[in-house]
Amino acid sequence: MDYFSILDLEREPFSNSPDPAFFYQSAQHTACLQQLELAIRLRRGLNVVIGHVGTGKTTLCREIIRRLDSDDTISTCLMLDPGMRSDSAFLSAVVEQLTGQAPPQDWTADRKKEAIKQFLFEKGVAENHTTALIIDEGQKMAPSCLEILREFLNYETNTHKLLQIVIFAQKEFDQIIADTPNFADRINLRLDMHPLGFRETMALIHFRIQISGGGSAGRLFSWPAMAAVFMITHGYPRRIIHLCHRILLTLIIQNRSRAGWRLVRASAKRTAMIHPTRPWRWAVAAIAAVILTAMSNLETINRWPFGFFTKDSAIVHTAPDAWSVNTPPATPRTGTPGAKRSGPDILPAARPPVSYSTPANGAANAFAAESPAFAKASVSVEITPVTMPARLGRITIQPGETIGQLIQMIYGQFAPTYLDAIVQANPHITDPDTVNVGDIVHFPALPAAVRPLPVTVWWVEVTSVQRLDDAVQTLNRLRKNHVAARLVPYWNPENGLVFSIVLADCFYDRQVAENTITRSVLASEPEAAVRSLWRDDTVFFCDPFRPMSVITATPS
Description:
Layout: H1 3-6, H2 27-41, E1 46-51, H3 57-69, E2 74-79, H4 87-99, H5 109-126, E3 130-135, H6 143-152, E4 163-169, H7 173-179, H8 181-184, E5 187-193, H9 198-211, H10 223-233, H11 237-253, H12 261-270, H13 279-294, E6 354-356, H14 362-370, H15 372-377, E7 386-388, E8 391-396, H16 403-411, H17 416-425, E9 440-444, E10 459-465, H18 468-480, E11 485-492, E12 496-503, H19 510-518, E13 529-531, E14 539-540
Helix pairs in contact: 2-3, 4-5, 10-11, 10-12, 10-13, 11-12
């Protein structure tokens, strides 16, 4: 019997192998993947990812290969150990990775370089094919090998590099770069990986347990246990996974069902993660555990797991002026200078519903004065009035659902601004943290600021419905089948209010998006289709470009 089945798990949740199914899309990991994929598709040349041991570089390496593997126009080659004994051996390894055949032993270095050059020109020019060389453990490379890679970057056309290089390396690679300025000048994109924060540490544990069929992480880990895990591991994913694996084994050995603070400490000692002569660290952890327990009913903690998301640290790609955005632009926040406000950008919403008809309509003019998007849309008028609703719809709370989870699902992210708006729209709810099964919750229509990417992207739309409750039911069905999907609610004068269910990740190539439909479980979805931008007068109620965290999570 597998040990995880004793804990009512379907598979091992904390394996130390880079299984793509267990890839947790934290904000920084998602941003890193998006930027790397964009750089490769735009054929920008050299990209470097640097981070301490255990920050998830190898997992990112496998994930970027997995994402590109479905594109027939891109071929990826993975070099796991670039620490070759000589430049000739390094060149031989590159030739074998690119061509699939090891070069003859009597080939000189120049002959190997010429073979690589011919291969890249044949693939990149004659066949318009993108070749990407992914190198893990880049800190093992000798400076002379970096010079060889720099020479490969000279193979280019007038518009792009013929070889795309991505190097994943530890922090000592910084010194190697500093000692080779010619190589450093060629770096197109440099990304730094950091440990996870406290909330993302807990979200990672929850995500892995949930994917393993174990429901909520709270079933196996108490709040003090979570605090102890973070204190010990400092947010390094590899340490988190290793420690949690030991914790589950200890639960089985001691015939327990839930880990507490003391059990985590004992497991950490057995893994040599802590030193027994430093009790002050555990005093701090104990204080944190007490605080967490006391705050377990407060807004900052109790929305499991959706209260754990940190602020999006991804680099925001702003669109150029020529970019045709089918969404209302973001408006600057107003108010007292220096006042702080937490939460996402929410465009001004009309109260009551806006009559979207002619410029002479007073309500439409008043709303246009607040929102540039509606002011622009009012130029093209219709005789028949079209009204944007003040509410998206209503949801009847089901077992295991919380308002925090529904906010994350409907608006794409949780923030106090959304919670405040929902409380105002539902005066019958006295405490949003203690809603009961069967309670009806109305969700207001809050136009969102959208920040699109500077290139054309495509979405795979699984289906679209007209009612919010139908959309939530469909999304829950897909997520239970491990389909990473998201809800994109929007409104425009022609189609009215629509709830589009799309795959979580957008695509940079239409053919790849279409292949995703035919080669996956979506082939059984009759309404699945590929779409790009929406209408110019479309109002979004969540940002479809925003990275999603723990997108496959289902209510627990």
